[in-house]
Amino acid sequence: MTAPEVRELAAGETEAIVALWEAAGLTRPWNPPHADVALALAGPSSTILGIDVDDELVATALVGHDGHRGWLYYVAVAQPHRGTGLARAIVTAGERWLAARGIRKVQLMVRDGNPAVSLYQHLGYELQATSVLGRWLDA
To answer: How many CB atoms lie within 10 A of CB 80?
Structure first.
């Protein structure tokens, strides 16, 4: 299998991006995906990568960094294309995007109960002995 072409997505593709994230079960009511797309595409420290098959967006990864650590968010592959290597391809592309910017470590968070943990472990990710704390700033 030839490596799929990974490209940076644009704001005009927001509806396709959000539709894929919703179909993959990644969106939550308290975290508006349209705003996440706009924010990710607004600056130089983040982007959204995508893979198309037959002119349809079938895989994404929102990738960004804080100057120290990189993060992957919204890693999604459309259901009919799971198990074809697209998850590995989009994660690897995100890692390359970060490495090209001098970022040495990439992290991601997976919600409890999401079976994707085993996928990431298969790709070489390790559970970290870390507690994630959060606070909403717009409350």
So the answer is: 10
Contact by Cβ (8 Å): 47, 8: yes
What torsion, rounded to 10 degrees, do the Cα atoms 116, 118, 124, 129 define?
90
Beta strand extents in 13-126 (DSSP E only) = 46-53, 56-65, 70-77, 106-108
Token representation of residue 123 = 């790709």
Alpha-carbon span 41 to 35, nearest angstrom = 10
- Decide the pairing of beta strands 70-77 and 106-108: parallel
CB 77 within 8 A of CB 91: no
How does pLDDT run across 14-69, given as a tens digit for each residue? 999 999 999 999 999 999 999 999 999 999 999 999 999 999 999 999 999 999 99
Q: How far apart are CA 110 and CA 116, in angstroms?
A: 7
Domains and CATH numbers, the chain: 6-122 (3.40.630.30)
Q: What angle do CA 40, 135, 106 make, to 5 degrees?
A: 45
Q: Dihedrals φ, ψ of 90, to 5°?
A: -75, -35
Q: What's the gap between Cα 97 and its chain centre?
A: 12
Return the bridge partners of 7, or none.
50
